[in-house]
Protein backbone atom coordinates (compact mmCIF):
# COMPACT_ATOMS: atom_id res chain seq x y z
CA UNK A 1 0.00 0.00 0.00
CA UNK A 2 1.25 3.49 -0.85
CA UNK A 3 1.61 6.22 1.72
CA UNK A 4 -1.59 8.09 2.56
CA UNK A 5 -2.10 11.44 4.28
CA UNK A 6 -5.09 13.40 5.54
CA UNK A 7 -5.51 17.17 5.29
CA UNK A 8 -7.84 19.69 6.90
CA UNK A 9 -8.94 23.04 5.49
CA UNK A 10 -10.96 25.96 6.79
CA UNK A 11 -12.03 29.25 5.24
CA UNK A 12 -14.26 32.15 6.18
CA UNK A 13 -15.41 35.17 4.19
CA UNK A 14 -17.47 38.19 5.00
CA UNK A 15 -20.82 38.54 3.20
CA UNK A 16 -21.52 41.88 1.53
CA UNK A 17 -24.79 43.15 0.12
CA UNK A 18 -25.16 43.13 -3.68
CA UNK A 19 -21.94 41.12 -4.09
CA UNK A 20 -21.75 37.89 -6.15
CA UNK A 21 -21.97 34.66 -4.17
CA UNK A 22 -19.88 31.84 -5.67
CA UNK A 23 -19.79 28.49 -3.91
CA UNK A 24 -18.27 25.36 -5.41
CA UNK A 25 -17.93 27.25 -8.67
CA UNK A 26 -21.69 27.88 -8.79
CA UNK A 27 -23.16 31.40 -8.80
CA UNK A 28 -25.89 31.51 -6.15
CA UNK A 29 -28.79 33.94 -6.13
CA UNK A 30 -28.72 35.80 -2.84
CA UNK A 31 -28.92 39.39 -1.55
CA UNK A 32 -25.29 39.17 -0.34
CA UNK A 33 -22.17 37.35 -1.43
CA UNK A 34 -18.75 36.40 -0.14
CA UNK A 35 -16.16 39.15 -0.43
CA UNK A 36 -12.47 38.53 -1.12
CA UNK A 37 -9.51 38.97 -3.45
CA UNK A 38 -10.47 36.10 -5.77
CA UNK A 39 -14.09 35.05 -6.25
CA UNK A 40 -14.12 34.33 -2.47
CA UNK A 41 -15.39 30.76 -2.91
CA UNK A 42 -15.03 29.52 0.69
CA UNK A 43 -15.78 25.92 -0.23
CA UNK A 44 -13.00 25.72 -2.80
CA UNK A 45 -10.59 27.63 -0.55
CA UNK A 46 -11.15 25.13 2.27
CA UNK A 47 -10.64 22.24 -0.15
CA UNK A 48 -7.43 23.81 -1.50
CA UNK A 49 -6.08 24.24 2.03
CA UNK A 50 -6.96 20.64 2.94
CA UNK A 51 -5.11 19.33 -0.11
CA UNK A 52 -2.10 21.60 0.39
CA UNK A 53 -1.92 20.71 4.07
CA UNK A 54 -2.08 16.97 3.41
CA UNK A 55 0.87 17.27 1.01
CA UNK A 56 2.78 19.61 3.39
CA UNK A 57 2.76 22.36 0.76
CA UNK A 58 1.88 25.29 3.06
CA UNK A 59 -1.46 27.05 2.53
CA UNK A 60 -3.58 28.83 -0.05
CA UNK A 61 -2.35 32.28 1.02
CA UNK A 62 1.24 31.24 0.42
CA UNK A 63 0.53 30.11 -3.15
CA UNK A 64 -2.14 32.66 -4.09
CA UNK A 65 -1.42 35.84 -2.15
CA UNK A 66 -4.21 38.40 -1.82
CA UNK A 67 -1.63 41.06 -2.72
CA UNK A 68 -0.88 39.45 -6.10
CA UNK A 69 -2.88 41.02 -8.95
CA UNK A 70 -2.77 37.73 -10.90
CA UNK A 71 -5.35 36.26 -8.53
CA UNK A 72 -7.69 39.30 -8.35
CA UNK A 73 -11.22 38.13 -9.19
CA UNK A 74 -10.01 34.73 -10.43
CA UNK A 75 -12.25 31.69 -10.29
CA UNK A 76 -11.27 29.48 -7.38
CA UNK A 77 -11.73 26.51 -9.71
CA UNK A 78 -8.52 27.72 -11.38
CA UNK A 79 -6.83 27.84 -7.97
CA UNK A 80 -7.96 24.26 -7.31
CA UNK A 81 -6.50 23.17 -10.65
CA UNK A 82 -3.16 24.76 -9.68
CA UNK A 83 -3.24 22.97 -6.32
CA UNK A 84 -3.88 19.63 -8.03
CA UNK A 85 -0.87 20.27 -10.29
CA UNK A 86 1.28 20.98 -7.23
CA UNK A 87 0.19 17.66 -5.75
CA UNK A 88 0.94 15.80 -8.99
CA UNK A 89 4.45 17.30 -9.05
CA UNK A 90 5.01 15.66 -5.65
CA UNK A 91 3.43 12.35 -6.79
CA UNK A 92 0.20 12.69 -4.79
CA UNK A 93 -3.27 11.86 -6.01
CA UNK A 94 -6.56 12.70 -4.35
CA UNK A 95 -8.48 9.86 -2.72
CA UNK A 96 -11.51 11.80 -1.55
CA UNK A 97 -12.77 15.18 -0.37
CA UNK A 98 -15.39 15.75 2.34
CA UNK A 99 -16.61 19.30 2.94
CA UNK A 100 -19.07 21.18 5.13
CA UNK A 101 -20.45 24.68 4.47
CA UNK A 102 -21.96 26.64 7.35
CA UNK A 103 -24.37 29.43 6.41
CA UNK A 104 -27.93 30.49 7.14
CA UNK A 105 -28.95 31.26 3.56
CA UNK A 106 -29.24 30.53 0.74
CA UNK A 107 -30.03 26.85 0.88
CA UNK A 108 -27.35 25.07 -1.14
CA UNK A 109 -28.76 21.54 -1.33
CA UNK A 110 -30.20 22.04 -4.85
CA UNK A 111 -26.76 23.24 -6.04
CA UNK A 112 -24.63 20.44 -4.60
CA UNK A 113 -24.74 18.24 -7.75
CA UNK A 114 -23.42 21.14 -9.87
CA UNK A 115 -20.74 21.91 -7.27
CA UNK A 116 -19.60 18.29 -7.29
CA UNK A 117 -19.36 18.34 -11.10
CA UNK A 118 -17.24 21.51 -10.99
CA UNK A 119 -14.93 20.20 -8.27
CA UNK A 120 -14.55 16.79 -9.89
CA UNK A 121 -13.56 18.38 -13.20
CA UNK A 122 -11.06 20.79 -11.60
CA UNK A 123 -9.56 18.14 -9.31
CA UNK A 124 -9.52 15.31 -11.84
CA UNK A 125 -11.46 12.93 -9.61
CA UNK A 126 -14.88 11.27 -9.65
CA UNK A 127 -17.95 13.00 -8.25
CA UNK A 128 -18.34 9.85 -6.13
CA UNK A 129 -15.18 10.87 -4.28
CA UNK A 130 -16.60 14.26 -3.26
CA UNK A 131 -19.01 14.89 -0.41
CA UNK A 132 -20.52 18.33 0.23
CA UNK A 133 -22.80 19.01 3.15
CA UNK A 134 -24.34 22.13 4.63
CA UNK A 135 -25.59 23.26 7.99
CA UNK A 136 -26.83 26.46 9.57
CA UNK A 137 -25.47 28.09 12.70
CA UNK A 138 -28.95 28.14 14.26
CA UNK A 139 -29.03 31.95 13.88
CA UNK A 140 -26.08 32.32 16.27
CA UNK A 141 -23.05 34.54 15.77
CA UNK A 142 -21.80 36.18 12.57
CA UNK A 143 -23.01 33.23 10.50
CA UNK A 144 -26.47 33.37 12.05
CA UNK A 145 -26.66 37.11 11.35
CA UNK A 146 -25.66 36.38 7.72
CA UNK A 147 -22.48 38.44 8.06
CA UNK A 148 -20.23 35.61 6.91
CA UNK A 149 -19.90 32.10 5.56
CA UNK A 150 -17.56 29.30 6.68
CA UNK A 151 -16.38 26.09 5.03
CA UNK A 152 -14.43 23.11 6.37
CA UNK A 153 -12.87 20.33 4.31
CA UNK A 154 -10.90 17.17 4.85
CA UNK A 155 -9.19 15.11 2.19
CA UNK A 156 -7.21 11.96 1.73
CA UNK A 157 -4.27 11.86 -0.64
CA UNK A 158 -2.17 8.87 -1.67
CA UNK A 159 1.37 8.65 -2.99
CA UNK A 160 1.35 7.56 -6.63
CA UNK A 161 5.04 6.54 -6.61
CA UNK A 162 8.04 6.93 -4.40
CA UNK A 163 10.06 10.15 -4.68
Describe this structure in words.
By secondary structure, the protein is α+β, with helices and mostly antiparallel strands. The protein has one domain: 60s Ribosomal Protein L30, Chain: A (2-Layer Sandwich). The protein has five helices and seven strands. The strands form two sheets. It has a five-stranded mixed sheet with strand order 4-1-7-5-6. A hairpin with a 2-residue loop joins strand 2 and strand 3. It is globular and about 50 Å long.
Q: What does this entry show, briefly?
A:
The protein has 163 residues and is α+β, with helices and mostly antiparallel strands. It has helices spanning 42-54, 60-63, 76-89, 112-123, 141-144; strands at residues 4-17, 21-23, 26-28, 32-34, 92-102, 130-135, 148-159.
- Rg value: 15 Å
Low-confidence stretches: none
CATH architecture descriptor name: 2-Layer Sandwich
Helix content class: 25-40%
- CATH first level: which class? Alpha Beta
CATH topology: 60s Ribosomal Protein L30, Chain: A
Question: Total number of helical segments?
Answer: 5
Average pLDDT works out at 95
The ordered H/E elements are EEEEHHHEHEHE
Please count the beta strands (DSSP E, at least 2 residues each).
7
> How many domains make up the 3D coordinates?
1
How is the biggest beta sheet arranged? 5 strands, mixed
Q: Quote the beta fraction.
A: 25-35%
Relevant CATH superfamily:
2-C-methyl-D-erythritol 2,4-cyclodiphosphate synthase
Spatial strand order of the main sheet = 4-1-7-5-6
Shape: globular
Distance between the termini: 15 Å
Amino acid sequence: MGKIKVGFGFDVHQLKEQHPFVLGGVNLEHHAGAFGHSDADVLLHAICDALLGAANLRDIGFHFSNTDARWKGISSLVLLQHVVELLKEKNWEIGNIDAMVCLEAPKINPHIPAMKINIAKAAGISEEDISIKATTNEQLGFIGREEGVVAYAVCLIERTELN
